[in-house]
Amino acid sequence: MADAHDPIAFELFKNAIFSIADEMALTIFRTTYSGVLKDNMDYSTGFADADGKLVAQGLTLPGHLGSVPTAMESIMRHFGNDMRPGDVFIMNDPFDGGMHLPDIFIFKPLYHGDERMAFAATVCHHSDVGGRVAGSNASDSTEIYAEGLRIAPLKLYDAGVLNTTIMTFIERNVRLPVQVFGDLRAQLAACHIAEKQFGQLVAKYGAAQTKAFMRETIDYAERLTRAALEQLPDGEWTFEDWIDDDGIDYGKPIRLFVTIRKRGATMVVDWTGTNPQVKGAINNTLSYTKAASYTGVRSVLPPGIPNNEGVFRAIEVICPPGTVGNGVLPAACAARGLTGFRMTDCMFGALAMMLPDKVKAAGDGGNTGVSIGGYHADRKPFVYVDFTCGAWGARPWADGLDGNSHMFANMASHSIEVTEAEHPIQLLAYEFVTDKAGAGKYRGGVPFRRDYRFTEEEGVLQVRSDRRDHRPFGLYGGSPGQPSENYLNPDGENRVLPGKFTMTVRKGDVFRHVLAGAGGWGDPLERDPAAVLRDVRNELLSPAKAEGDYGVVLDTERWVVDTKATERRRAEIRKARDWRETPKVQSHDPKPFAGAADRRP
Description:
The chain is of the alpha+beta class.
């Protein structure tokens, strides 16, 4: 048996545990049925100790970072003294450990003889769990009871025996039972892989040493986290941002407000002051708010810290019940992803005051959710679920990323060819959009648009998007990104659609979604003219915007910067700007932080 203090043996064990969680993720990727899993990769895997404390997380969604511990707490509360080899647990109830109904958790306790040693944990976003709208993800539901099948923490397998009653209830309440069952089997396969590989670890190290190393993996993460927090400045920082509306009360903005308090080796993330819960389905569970908070903090900590219980010990997250960040019954929460993503950006706003040289501006506000469902002529149902985001806010040292998933998501795009083969949808456009990125010394990420043509006779289109009235904020002089857009039949009637809606579409209808542009960082007049020229040549920026936003005058016949004209134009802009900003009455010192959320376009 290895020495409990042998650093080499511990490092080998730690990497083996992390590899198990990653292998679980790859197993789901290889065996799942639905596009939202095999393409979007909207799932997570983890490995917990015998008490349900997270030891390792697989290489998937940061958005689930806070979900597994909360779900495990629920399983332990209900079944802590009622477990045995062969048991498997299932749940999705947002008010008893879950997040929203499409996210179904599967947990399998792992045994050595009669001793429970660990848990294999998986959570997958299922393409449909019933409810009033195909995809079970509508933003305009007003209570949880309209959103689909709500599964309390239950035993799916009892000592190896499948609970056929649960499976029958699922089968009769979802639109695509073959797909849902296939995805559930992928989760079970991942747990089986974990059980096999963990058994090999126990055989190598012995039960006592395995438990000691798992404890040390958590303690190790806590030590690293606290040591990293010690290096950050102490203080208190607040930030406010707004969601446009909840899709029910149009035009009524929803406040997000965060306070970060840092003292020594601890941090508190406090969401007190955030809007009360709303009618629409964008209410968060506390676990998802925790995930957004942890993601923001982890972005400013060194790499290499394991994602496990040790991190959570050093970071306290507070969000009062009954708010949009911690909904209570009967809060609708199917579209809570929007709020989680926006809370992550809100965290960046507060952290940017704490660490101005490390934190990026707001991204596109994603992810946008698009669901299209209905029935073929033979009454066979179809459900297309897509989550899309693709523009990072500008960083203090570089432009925002173009076409890259939001930090909170780590998702990939659906294959256009597979989408068109499996669904009555054609993708007519998938391209970057000119003049949408926020200007700055470093510009925001450039967003893209997609055009979806519907080819079945009739279906239901559901869209969850934002960042129209309250654009992605820039930092320290950077401009906000341009707003998102939705259109029906852009080459015909070109009907402008709201940010959140559910509507009937018919054969030949085209839906266009344009992501919001990401915010910029720093004074646009300090941007390298060569970078402006490059963006214009790549059709990410027009010559007119190059001159208007950056003061850069281009000769587009020779594709060179007109240096003298640029110097004159920048001087004119600075003179006009200085005149506008000169205070007419002496006031207090200017704020050290500029470029906060732009409230209106």
